[in-house]
Structure formats: structure tokens, C-alpha cells
């Protein structure tokens, strides 16, 4: 579904990714692991077209990537806290709405689709609450619903649980795995916690110094990703 | 390290001397003193004149006190105070659409292009630089005496101030939600309408209330140059040497200004409280 091939990204002269190949299939939750500075977030940003790519290409279903095919979920959630949960989810549909019908409230069919997305993440009963009044974990689930309302084929989640407590983290990752399996989405999640990846991901990719050093079953040992090579003085 | 009565002490190292910084300090002090000397001379400040004028001030106060609180003075005074309030209200409200448009064009992040940003900033600077009294004099000449030129003058100046304040509030907003909507394919206008404006609405409303407060006070001064309201009555009573009536008008003004100031403060406090909820 989502294929990244030969991706090279440089920040100035310094290469951050060296020809990285990663694929995510339909119905699969792929966790990308790695230490700080390993290039895992840059990989996600390259997939989302948020950083210029020096070499390599990104395809969705074998074809060129359409912006609306890829939905993002952010570490800092980025909901509009003062708006209702429902309005926040509806905003995911903005990319396919004409300007005229999106300025004065959302059309009924979009609101009903957004309700279905909220139902999907288990928060339909909170539709009219202010987004800011929900807990962090609930807010991240609303952000996932917003991503669903975009009707994507791929979901890219950038450290989606780094700001959440352990219970909420489990819930959000279980939700992402379920969406991959049941809705047939390709989900790529950059994670900081190998244990969470082992429990929820279908496959893990490990990055070290901008290269893929590990790709396979989620329950394998990933300690080598985080070892410090030079002795710390 | 020395130990005195069981307390450890370390001598403070001497401060490094920086002759250059001291020189600059003295130079700044000299410029400030020189500026004040020139200003004192130019404005003709004279304690002698103030002492000599004491008798005039006393006569003035003697005639002003007690204020004339008869209904024939107080009634028109209250009516005119209401006119002043309406001038301030319309001067604020009517400037909202233009201020919003210019603020969006003059904020980084919502400005469609660099030249638009610079142009919008220039328009706002111009409107801000021309005082509302000058706008009032222009509009009085154009459309005649009365409250209407006052409203026009306030709108012009207030667009300049409120547009700038709003543009800065927009620039200070959390960039996260707009980024999320852009990544979902929303265009510039949709991002402003669905992420940016909803986030900063309380700040914009608070600044609006602050400007309403300022504009009511400004519209008093506009009355002095013929743009209607209670300022016009104050001007008239001074010209006719009816100082007791003038004092009545001033007391009404104080009540009006304090009331609007309180209202504005209460609304702004409620807005900022709601923000943290």
C-alpha cells in the first residue's frame, strides 16, 4: 500500500536518512522504532511530504501519492480545543469540501459521517463537548476520528502516545491496530516504547543512524537500537 | 573556603570592570538629561506663571463648585453622554469587518504573499499614525457637525489599532491545529476559519472590549472638535463661562467612563477564565 523506496533526506549537508526502504501493507500496523536522532520522525515527515526528499520516492498503491490519501496523527494532538468534538472531526473532511459549503457550518452528510467516525473510536456520546474538556487519551482518539473523516488509505502517526499515560497509550494503539485490521488501512506509527510496539504492532522496523537495521516480527529484541556505541564521558 | 560558626562561606569574586559599558551608560544619561533640558525650555514650563495663575484657578473652581445639578442641565448632559456612548459603540463595531480582513492579511501565516503582508501592515500603520481627532476634523469638514463624523473618525483610527492588535494575536496562536488541517488538505481560508479564528476568538473579543473602552473615552475628545456627544457640551459651557454646568458634564463623564471601564474589565476577565476551563 504505502511504499517508501530509497528515501534520502539531508538537513543541510548532514544526511539524516540514507536510502531507506520501508513498506506498509493494507491492514497492517507498522511500528517504527529507534533512538532519538535515528531519523524515525524524519521518515514519517518524508512520507507525508513535510520535508524535501533528496532521493527516492513515495508511492501509494503503486501510484503517485495524493495528499488526501495520507492522514496524520500528531504527538501534540493539535485539536482546536475550543471547538466541539464533532466540529474537530468534521474538519478532517475539509480537503474534499468546496470553500463555499465549508465556511458556514458543515453540511449534514459530513456531520453524519463524522458521527460515524466518532462512533468508530468510541466517543460518539461526547460529540457536543468541547474538545479541550476531554482527557488526553480521548483527545487523541478524536484526532484519530478526524484522520478517519479524511477517508485516507494510509494513516501516519508521529509518536501518537508520547504525551499520554500508559492506559491511554494502550487504548490508542489498540485502536490504531484495529483500524488497520478491520478497515484495511495501512498504519505507520513512530513509537518510543518498544513494549507497546511488541504488544500492538504487526511488524516493527528499527532505524539506527538513518538506516534500517531491523525489520520483522514485533516481539524480537530491539535493544541494539538504543545501545550507546561511544562511551559517554 | 572559610567556615564561620559552622556555615560555609566563599568570598565573592570581584565584578569584572567593563569600561565600555560604563561609557555607554554615561552617554545615555547625558542624552536623557539634555533632552529634558531642551523640552523644559521649549514648552515654557514656569513655576512663576503657575503661582501667578493661582488666583485665576481659584476663581474658576469657585464658579464651578457647586455643580449645576438642575434637570435643565443634567437632562441634556445625560442625553449627550448617551450619544458619546453610541459613537464609541458604533466606532468599535463598524470597524470589526475591516479590522478582521486587514489583520488576516497582516499576520504571518495567514498573509497570502509577502507584498500583501507589507501592504496591509503599511495601511494599518498609516491609520494608527493619524490621530482620531485629526480624522474627526477632516470628517466634520466633509459631512458637517454632529455625531456621524465622530463615528467615521473612530472607525478609521480604530481599524489601525485593532487590526494590528488582532494580527499579533493571530501570530501568537498555537500553530499546531492549523498545521493539522493543512495536512488534511484544507486551503488557507478554511484553515483560518476552522482552526485559527476559533482558537484566538477569546483574545480577539478581549481586545475588542478594550478598544470599546478606549473609543468611548476618545469620542469625548471628538466632541470638543464638533463631532457631537458630551464633549461638545463641555466645550460650549467653557466658551460661555458656565463653569458650574461644565462640572456637571464632567461628573457625568466620570460616571460613564468608569461604568464602561468596569464592564470591559469584567467581560475580559470572564473571557480569559473561560479560556483555561
Polypeptide structure, described:
- The complex is a heterodimer of chains A (233) and B (277).
- Chain A has 233 residues and is an alpha/beta fold.
- Chain A has one domain: 3-Layer(aba) Sandwich (Rossmann fold), CATH 3.40.50.300.
- Chain A has helices spanning 40-47, 85-90, 99-103, 108-120, 136-149, 166-183, 194-200, and strands at residues 2-11, 14-24, 28-33, 55-60, 63-64, 70-73, 154-158, 186-190, 203-208, 211-216.
- The model of chain A has no long low-confidence stretch (mean pLDDT 90).
- Chain B is mainly alpha-helical and 277 residues long.
- Chain B has one domain (71-276): MetI-like (MetI-like fold, Orthogonal Bundle), CATH 1.10.3720.
- In chain B, 78% of the residues lie in helices and 2% in strands.
- Chain B is built from twelve helices and two strands, in the order ββαααααααααααα.
- In chain B, strand 1 and strand 2 form a beta hairpin.
- In chain B, 37% of the residues are buried.
- The mean pLDDT of chain B is 88.
- Chains A and B meet through helix 3 and helix 5 of A and helix 9 and helix 10 of B.
- Chain A: Pfam families: ABC_tran.
- Chain A: InterPro entries: AAA+_ATPase, ABC_transporter-like_ATP-bd, ABC_transporter-like_CS, MetN_ABC_transporter-like, P-loop_NTPase.
- Chain A: Keywords: ATP-binding, Nucleotide-binding, Transport.
Amino acid at each position: 500500500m504505502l511504499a517508501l523506496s530509497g528515501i534520502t533526506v539531508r538537513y543541510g549537508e548532514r544526511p539524516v536518512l540514507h536510502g531507506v526502504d520501508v513498506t506498509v501493507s493494507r491492514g497492517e500496523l507498522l511500528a517504527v522504532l529507534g533512538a532519538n536522532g535515528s531519523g524515525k520522525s524524519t521518515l514519517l515527515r518524508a512520507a507525508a511530504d513535510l520535508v524535501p526528499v533528496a532521493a527516492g520516492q513515495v508511492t501509494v498503491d503503486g501510484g503517485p501519492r495524493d495528499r488526501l490519501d495520507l492522514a496524520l496523527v500528531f504527538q501534540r494532538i493539535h485539536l482546536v480545543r475550543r471547538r466541539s468534538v464533532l466540529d474537530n472531526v468534521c474538519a478532517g473532511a475539509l480537503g474534499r469540501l468546496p470553500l463555499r459549503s465549508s465556511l458556514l457550518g458543515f453540511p449534514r452528510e459530513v456531520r453524519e459521517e463524522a458521527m460515524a467516525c466518532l462512533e468508530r473510536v468510541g466517543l460518539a456520546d461526547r460529540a457536543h463537548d468541547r474538545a479541550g474538556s476531554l482527557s488526553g487519551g480521548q483527545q487523541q482518539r478524536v484526532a484519530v476520528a478526524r484522520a478517519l473523516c479524511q477517508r485516507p488509505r494510509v494513516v501516519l502517526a508521529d509518536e501518537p502516545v508520547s504525551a499520554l499515560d500508559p492506559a491511554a497509550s494502550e487504548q490508542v494503539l489498540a485502536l490504531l491496530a484495529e483500524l488497520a485490521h478491520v478497515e484495511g488501512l495501512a498504519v505507520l506509527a513512530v513509537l518510543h516504547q518498544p513494549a507497546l510496539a511488541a504488544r500492538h504492532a504487526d511488524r516493527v522496523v528499527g532505524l539506527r543512524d538513518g538506516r534500517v537495521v531491523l525489520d520483522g516480527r514485533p516481539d524480537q529484541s530491539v535493544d541494539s537500537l538504543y545501545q550507546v556505541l561511544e562511551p559517554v564521558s | 573556603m572559610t567556615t564561620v560558626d559552622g556555615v560555609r562561606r566563599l568570598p565573592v569574586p570581584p565584578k569584572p570592570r567593563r569600561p565600555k559599558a560604563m561609557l555607554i551608560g554615561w552617554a545615555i544619561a547625558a542624552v536623557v538629561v539634555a533632552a529634558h533640558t531642551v523640552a523644559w525650555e521649549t514648552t515654557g514650563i514656569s513655576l512663576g506663571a503657575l503661582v501667578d495663575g493661582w488666583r485665576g484657578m481659584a476663581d474658576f473652581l469657585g464658579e464651578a463648585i457647586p455643580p449645576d445639578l438642575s434637570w435643565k442641565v443634567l437632562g441634556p448632559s445625560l442625553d449627550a453622554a448617551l450619544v458619546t456612548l453610541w459613537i464609541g459603540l458604533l466606532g468599535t463595531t463598524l470597524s470589526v469587518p475591516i479590522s478582521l480582513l486587514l489583520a488576516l492579511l497582516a499576520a504571518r501565516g495567514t498573509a497570502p504573499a509577502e507584498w500583501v503582508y507589507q501592504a496591509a501592515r503599511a495601511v494599518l500603520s498609516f491609520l494608527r499614525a493619524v490621530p482620531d481627532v485629526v480624522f474627526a476634523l477632516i470628517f466634520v469638514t466633509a459631512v458637517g457637525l454632529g455625531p456621524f463624523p465622530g463615528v467615521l473618525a473612530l472607525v478609521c483610527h480604530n481599524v489601525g489599532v485593532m487590526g494590528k492588535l488582532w494580527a499579533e494575536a493571530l501570530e501568537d496562536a498555537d500553530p499546531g491545529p492549523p498545521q493539522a488541517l493543512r495536512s488534511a488538505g484544507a486551503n488557507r481560508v478554511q484553515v483560518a476559519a476552522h482552526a485559527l479564528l476559533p482558537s484566538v476568538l477569546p483574545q480577539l473579543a478581549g481586545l475588542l472590549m478594550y478598544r470599546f473602552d478606549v473609543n468611548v473615552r476618545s469620542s469625548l475628545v471628538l466632541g470638543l472638535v464638533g463631532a457631537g456627544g458630551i464633549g461638545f457640551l463641555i466645550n460650549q459651557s467653557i466658551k460661555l463661562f458656565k463653569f458650574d454646568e461644565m462640572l456637571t458634564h464632567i461628573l457625568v463623564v466620570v460616571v460613564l467612563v468608569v461604568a464602561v471601564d468596569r464592564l470591559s474589565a469584567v467581560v475580559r476577565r470572564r473571557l480569559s477564565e473561560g479560556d483555561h476551563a
